Amino acid sequence: MIDLRSDTITRPTARMRRAMAEAEVGDDVFGEDPTVRRLEEETARLLGKEAALYVPSGHMSNQLAIYAQVNSGDEIWAHRSSHILANEQGATSVLARALPRAYDDPRGYPDHDLLEQWAAGSNDVHRARPRLICLENTFTGRVVPLTEQQRVADFAHALGMSLHIDGARLWNASVELGVPPSEAASGADTVSVCFSKGLGAPVGSALAGSAETVDRARRARKLLGGGMRQAGIIAAGALHALHHHRDRLAEDHRRAAELAVALDALPGMSALARTNMVVVTTPPDEAARWARAFTEHGVGCVPIGPDLIRLVLHLEVDDAMLDQAIKRIAEAAAAARR
Ligand SMILES: Cc1ncc(COP(=O)(O)O)c(C=O)c1O
Questions:
Q1: Does the Cβ of 79 fall within 6 Å of ligand 1?
Q2: Which domain holds residue 191?
Q3: Which of residues 227, 244, 261 is at a domain's end?
Q4: The ligand 1 atom nearest the CA atom of 194
Q5: How far apart are the first and last CA of the chain?
Q6: Is 141 in the pocket of ligand 1 (CB under 6 A)?
Q7: Three-class DSSP category at 316
Q8: 338 pLDDT more than 90
Q9: pLDDT tens string 175-226
């Protein structure tokens, strides 16, 4: 099976396993794990923020960002199909007890008119207090342009709101734009990044922001039972990924572009590459059936809409596997068309 369902499926490389086995560790709940500390400091520095907190997952990182910045009953604005609103079990309403307000824009970020409209009368006593805007970058592989991100950040700050970026794949945005991660995270008060997606580490994400916000998030992580003891074992995998797997994301993007060109030429489908993801459009309402056919022909994929299939390039896919995947999908598509 050539598994293109997600970049989360990668297993640690031999060198990464060695780094993990040899990690210096201590009790991180006492703040004594040198590897976790190093990971947090390096991540904060890379992202241009004061501090960072190592957490078990991107989900927890996003929710801690919200919990640390929002009071019960405040509004958070996020995309309708963002991970925060669509794939975290409604946790914003359970943990921070925030009121989610969903924007819906195919580009992944809200336009100026909508923000103006939502901000109008926000001081009205009848209204919930708008407190946080969330962006996702990349958004299904699509990079949010830096000028748009800055525009949303400026808008949020002018209104006394904060900006959180779910940057599970911010590393991909940084490589695609050719800018340092700190620039890709610019304007954000908090940013969540994942080590276990394109970077290929087995576990973990980080929340970066001001020292004060990260302190609040650290307390909330403990509240949720997320304090980890000798976490340096897994943090070492994340550090290794940070040092050795960031630049190679460009290879995933190059392979995604090649895959999209090859699939786009096949009858019955069109395909678009966005950073490390390829989105295939099938005939109407055929995504589930075509995705089954791809899988039966040995290429793992995920249907993400009635006629959309997602394929993700990652660390375990080389050029020979890419050629194989293209051949198998061509056979699968021919079978599905019959
Ligand atoms: C954009 C985005 N944010 C957050 C997450 C959550 O990450 P985790 O699975 O580590 O909780 C994911 C997971 O795929 C994601 O795609």
A1: no
A2: 14-244
A3: 244
A4: 10
A5: 23
A6: no
A7: coil
A8: no
A9: 999 999 999 999 999 999 999 999 999 999 999 999 999 999 999 999 999 9
